[in-house]
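Standup notes
- DV: blocked on the single-chain target, sequence here:
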Amino acid sequence: MRRVFLLALAVLFAGAANTSAQSAYDPRPWLDDLAQMHDAFSTKYANFEWAEFDNEVNLAALFADTQKSIQSANSDADARAAFDRLIRRLGDGHTELHWPAHNVTAQATTPSDPCNDYDPAPAAKPLAAYAKGYVAIETPQSDAFPAGVIISGTHRVGVIKIKMFYPSFRPEYCRAALAALSIPADKPCNDACTDRIASWAEAKLNEDFIAQIKNLKRAQIDTLVVDIAENGGGSEWAEAAARMVTPIRLHAARMDFMRGAHWVKKLGELESDLRTAAASASPTDRAMLLTFADEAAAKKAVAATPCDAGPLWQGRHPNCSWLGEGFPATGPIASADAASLKGKPWAATAFTPMEYQYTDGLWRGSLIVLVDGGSASASEEFAAELQDNHAALIMGEPTYGAGAGHTDGGTPTTLTHSGAVLVVPDCVRLRADGENEVGGVVPDLLVGFRRTDGPHLRADAFLARLPAALRMVKYPLKSKT
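- DV (later): unblocked, structure below
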């Protein structure tokens, strides 16, 4: 009898605790956060039209469903889950919610290591490395860019893996940068300091890539496979890398921008830099740079003019252009001969690949690019540009579909109640056919990868389709200017 009485008390207390937890939940602050998120989409979300009309996501219904979920939730955890579902159902690779960490211990009094953001994960092997007959090339650059050779029929195929288009996957780059720049690892490192480290590391990444391409050429290959499977993106180095693996003069995609203060500032800075450069340039260059500056000023005026998102929330196109027409992804110059720009102080301002000491057409033979569902962002920029310029055969499976993302830190929004940080893309890259790159890159030759396949099964699938790829790719590839 006493046992039954104690059990009844336990049930009673449990019910009381549950009732208390439910009563403690207040949906109103979460609804305020949702309204703030709605406003951010209305003023900052570059992919709104694509999401609504191409991806057929009814954003108004999505927000309405999330509102209902928050109102019927039993806890803060349920409300947070409703926000996460909204982001998942939207399906935009560059739209994310970053939740604040709780119960974080106080920061140590010692300065953080400048290399903390460099992930010590080893460079991934190229998929071909799991196939029979693959012979790895061991060079000082192989830790950064694993490479090798595989024979297919009469072809000697070189393979190089690009894990990321940014050096953060190799702490060794950061450590070397600290030594080269005389930056102590145990002292504070501000933004200017970290920028110096990143610039040095990117230059070393570029140097190692060049060296490894040359190593492959010495192996007497006739075809190059650039493996960017599971490459989640990186930096503008993707534009330089693309130009190094083809003799074809690539024409960059147009990058349209989200109207608002962020791009007013960005275009204003570009205008100022161009006018400053023009002041000391040759007469011919001065005229060109001032023309670019005038274009930047005109685009800045567009960025300062809002476009009402109201019709989009009702499933209609707005009367105005949702995005401003931007410059190419490479800056005011869409296509250039790197040699002709070397030595010009303004080169990187007008053509961003000139930030890197790259050489056009370092590889001049036939080119295959391997992609999969993990290839995203800058990887899609790399693959799309080569595909649109008919400079490479793309093989694999459709890419992730992240497209362009955030420029110069983007336009983050901190939700007042939860402290979550919402990030949305502030620009889009447009393919040669006018389509938004966020739709992903569809390969010219599909490979039957399955989500559950391990690396050896995926390598077998790649190897089985390689002869078809070699029949489709052009021999020899002719330079176009």
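- Follow-up: Residues 1-22, 103-110 have pLDDT under 50 and may be disordered.
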